[in-house]
Amino acid sequence: MHTVLTRSNDKFIPLSMRVNIANRSGADLFISIHSNANRSRALSGFEVYYVAPNISDSKRAAMTARSATLRIKDAVLASGSQDLEAIIWDMIYTNSRAESIGLAHSLCRVMDSSIEANIRGIKSARFQVLKGIRSPGVLIEVGFVSNLREERLLRSGAYRQRLAAGILEGIREYAQDMNLVDMGGR
Q1: Is 79 a residue whose pLDDT tops 50?
Q2: Quick one: CA dihedral 10, 11, 16, 19, positive or negative?
Q3: In the CATH hierarchy, which fold is given to the domain comprising 24-57+96-177?
Q4: Do 128 and 15 contact (CB within 8 A), yes or no?
Q5: Distances (CA, A) of 6 to 23, 24, 148, 175
Q6: DSSP run (H or E) holding 45
Q7: What integer is the mean pLDDT of 124-145?
Q8: C-alpha to C-alpha distance for 11 and 54, rounded to whole angstroms
Q9: Which among 130, 141, 169, 185 could bridge 51 via Cys, Cβ 3.0 to 4.6 Å?
Q10: Judging by DSSP bridges, how do beta strands 46-51 and 137-144 pair with one another?
């Protein structure tokens, strides 16, 4: 498993640049990790988002076909037909949404047994980073910094390590379920 970070410090990187980094890298998965906040200090928990179903895959596909190259091994498209490319991108985006939901389920399942937190579940959203990504992708909210208990936990290196380990295990479960990687007899 090879990881590409969109940022390695607390310097803001525009959302479109994060998407471009992931798309240019040919990422198999996109994972965006955040800490949540809300005016209500009572809200708490871990949740995972995938791109909303009301985001049109066919519109995203048409835009992508105009700006991106399909990297399909051993395939030749008839005279570079943009319509054909848009159809293929539409199929890719439809499949990616389903895979994103599968990844979200794996993450929540593992985190439910890894951390003592309210698992708020899986939700769809129109987040920019999810709309622009060309591979399965999720946005993870690891907890609420506006909740005093979770803020304390999130300040703890040991807790952040448990979160990271749980996220990694969720990705491994998903990859194994999807036959993306050979787990070496695991």
Answers
A1: yes
A2: negative
A3: Aminopeptidase (3.40.630)
A4: yes
A5: 11, 11, 29, 21
A6: none
A7: 91
A8: 32
A9: 130
A10: antiparallel
Q: Which residues are 125's β-sheet partners?
A: 51
Expressed in angstroms, the distance from the first to the final Cα of the chain is 15
Q: How many CA atoms lie within 13 A of 86 on its CB side?
A: 11
Please give the mean pLDDT across all residues of the chain. 84
Which tokens is 130 given? 């999810």
Residue 68: what are its φ and ψ, rounded to 5°? -130, 155
Q: What is the H or E stretch that residue 49 is in?
A: strand 46-51
Residue type, 102: G
Q: How far apart, in whole angstroms, are the C-alpha atoms of residue 109 and residue 170?
A: 8
Tens of pLDDT, residues 3-18: 889 888 889 999 889 9
DSSP class of 51: E
Q: Is the dihedral of CA 163, 168, 171, 177 positive or negative?
A: negative
- Give the model's pLDDT for residue 186: 47
Residue ranges covered by each domain of the chain? 24-57+96-177
Coil, helix or strand at residue 41: coil
Write out pLDDT tens, residues 22-71.
888 888 899 999 999 999 999 999 999 998 877 666 666 556 555 666 66
